[in-house]
Design goal:
About 40% of the residues lie in helices and about 10% in strands. The protein has about 350 residues and is an alpha/beta fold. Helix 11 runs antiparallel to helix 12. The longest helix has 25 residues.
Length: about 350
């Protein structure tokens, strides 16, 4: 009899757990592609679709990650990223390298995959396909340099982190508004700049590209091409074209030819090199100007105006950088880390 009662009790509990009234509560979320996606009311496990989303979400809800889209190499991030976070599995990314391992992602059992960034013509189709492949709800949040604060507020509501999201959004809005005011004062006197990347220094970030959004806000971007690429590798050009542009100032991406350019005959007559008006963009754990074009670009809004237009910048760059790393990386930056990050970022 006791065995029968135990069996009946277990059966009753099982049926109770499966009852509609006790099912997980869900909500319908309308993403920025206009898709209605059913999600758990309380999200506790997520995966970013790529490195751009990873950086945005790391500042807001790192504890919810069950995997990453790209590797923050421990040697390259200067101890900025929490070591526990680096131990998470990598699933790859939907765009860029397009190496997303949908099977491994599904096995990690996230409740949502979050894509953040450029509003592409294929955003709806891409999210629907990803959701069908993984069986995991997938949402798209649009974010440009200007609208990223609002993207944080949307994410805060989605993840139940409204207060934290508002703190991040307020910082970004303050930096963006100040930079806009600086550029109004600069007016037509923008610096003629070329952003150079690649191991041979023969790629540029083109005007009008998604990757070039920050550059276009701050300078006269000389890299005007027929088909601007929004890829992190930019547009390939040749030295003849660079000579025709003849920039007054050059920004060299990390890993490009900054260290050797002064000794290169091909660059010896470029105005910026002749005058020593060139710097290397800081990196740690990501490039301050983009690659990916994520929230760290606000470091570019803090740093680059002070390099190009110091007469209009009355703020302490170092203090602002420290505040950014505290807010968005959870890292109390040291003087030594700052010096390493900005070793070639300012003119002598």
């Amino acid at each position: 009899m006791k065995k029968l009662l135990s069996l009946l009790l277990a059966l009753a509990m099982a049926l109770g757990l499966c009852a509609p009234g006790l099912a997980e509560e869900t909500v319908v979320f309308t993403d920025d592609a206009g898709r209605e996606v059913e999600l758990p009311a309380q999200i506790e496990r997520l995966v970013p679709s790529g490195p751009l989303a990873q950086m945005v979400l790391y500042a807001l809800a790192p504890d919810l990650f069950v995997g990453m889209a790209s590797d923050w190499n421990a040697d390259d991030n200067l101890g900025i990223i929490d070591p526990d976070f680096l131990a998470l599995p990598y699933f790859g990314q939907l765009y860029g390298s397009a190496d997303l391992n949908v099977e491994q992602l599904a096995l990690a059992d996230p409740q949502v995959v979050v894509d953040i960034g450029e509003d592409k013509p294929t955003s709806t189709e891409d999210m629907d396909t990803l959701q069908a492949q993984t069986g995991v709800p997938s949402v798209f949040i649009s974010a440009t340099l200007e609208t990223l604060p609002d993207a944080y507020r949307t994410l805060g509501a989605l993840l139940g982190r409204e207060e934290r999201a508002e703190e991040l959004a307020a910082f970004l809005e303050r930096v963006y508004a100040r930079t806009s005011e600086i550029m109004e004062q600069v007016g037509e006197d923008r610096a003629d700049v070329l952003y150079v990347l690649g191991e041979e220094g023969l790629n540029v970030l083109a005007a009008g590209s998604y990757q070039g959004e920050l550059l276009d806000m701050l300078v006269n971007n000389l890299a005007v091409v027929d088909n601007p690429s929004s890829k992190g590798t930019g547009n390939a050009v040749d030295m003849e074209q660079i000579a025709l542009w003849n920039p007054a100032f050059v920004l060299f991406a990390p890993g490009s030819i900054y260290a050797d350019v002064a000794q290169m005959d091909t660059w010896s007559e470029i105005t910026a090199i002749v005058n020593g008006d060139y710097v290397e963009v800081p990196k740690g754990p990501h490039n301050w100007m983009g690659m990916p074009p994520s929230v760290q670009r606000y470091l570019g809004l803090i740093w680059l105006p002070a390099v190009l237009y110091p007469e209009y910048c009355d703020y302490d760059v170092k203090e602002e950088v420290f505040e950014y790393y505290r807010l968005f990386y959870g890292c109390e930056l040291t003087d030594e880390q700052y010096e390493t990050l900005t070793a070639h970022a300012f003119l002598d």
